[in-house]
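JOB MANIFEST
job_type = single_chain_structure
chain_count = 1
residues = 88
[input]
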Amino acid sequence: MIRKRVVVEGRVQGVGFRASCAQQARAAGAGGMVHNLDDGGVEAVFEGIPSVVDALVTWCEHGPRFAHVRNVVVTSEEPRGETSFRVS
């Protein structure tokens, strides 16, 4: 299991990014969370098997249809055993 924190910058609020991210993560069986940041970005944390987490990080590089991702910052963290995915 691995855990990665992703901060996505660009036009990512008001375009369904969080809902789409949660749908992708739940379908893939990842744990973690996604939420809006005060600066207009979105932060997500994914935990699961490496191939799943890496695929979700890659998805964040483009996001849903109406998003315009400008930058993605990825940080590895110690896994915490999260198995469900939430939107906050």
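[summary]
DSSP finds two helices and five strands in the chain.
The beta strands are 2-11, 31-36, 42-48, 68-77, 85-87.
exit_status = 0
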